[in-house]
Amino acid sequence: MNFTSRAVALDLDGVLLDGMPFHIKAWQLAFERCNYHPDPTELYRLEGIPTREVVEMICEAHSLELSSHQREEISSTKRRIYREVFQPVPLSGANSLLKQLMNWKYPIAVVTGTSRRAAVATLEALEAIDLISAIVSSDDNIPGKPDPAPFREAARQLCVNTTQCLAVDNAPPGVTSAVLAGLPCVGVATYLDQEDLTEADLVFADVQTVANWIDREHEISKGRGPWILKS
Length: 231
Fold this sequence. Notes:
Elements: E1 7-11, H1 20-32, H2 40-45, H3 51-61, H4 68-85, H5 94-103, E2 108-111, H6 116-125, E3 134-136, H7 149-158, E4 165-169, H8 172-181, E5 185-188, E6 202-204, H9 207-221
Parallel strand pairs: 1-2, 1-4, 2-3, 4-5, 5-6
Helix pairs in contact: 1-4, 3-4, 5-9
């Protein structure tokens, strides 16, 4: 396998897409039938984890005595409502980030917990699909975030060593996944506080700030060698 020098692996929702408000609405409506109202911050912290696993985690955390059938119903209801309410809203700063990465000729992977079909449709709607070299999705039959498998797979598909593939993620499960995979990791506090992402090597307040940092980093490193992880 021929390895390129550097690449970047981006989460989709919360880095390129402002989609979590639609997820939150879908979760709240799905749980409404069992008279439970999930806290948005709790849901933000579980972003990137597969839907059915989130149901199990919430039921366990809050001692919700729901049958397997009820839990499956909540999962399917959440997915259905999300499809109905979702709109592809680009996150502020996302276009700037993609532009900087393309300027410096960094191959880009998208690492998402959604299906490949949904990811492609979203990237097409954002007019970003032609900029993406690889997509790691729930269809890849590998463990999801926070397992390291998704970001390892991104580096593999991009033909780059994990230590040379920068991960950008906005949620704790994604940051954990990247760190365990051995990728240098930048956290972006799109929906949570920066203190929630301290496992990352660097944490920035928003995507535009990440784009600005990548520009400065490239000026210093010239796009060669390990990423210089200084704010």
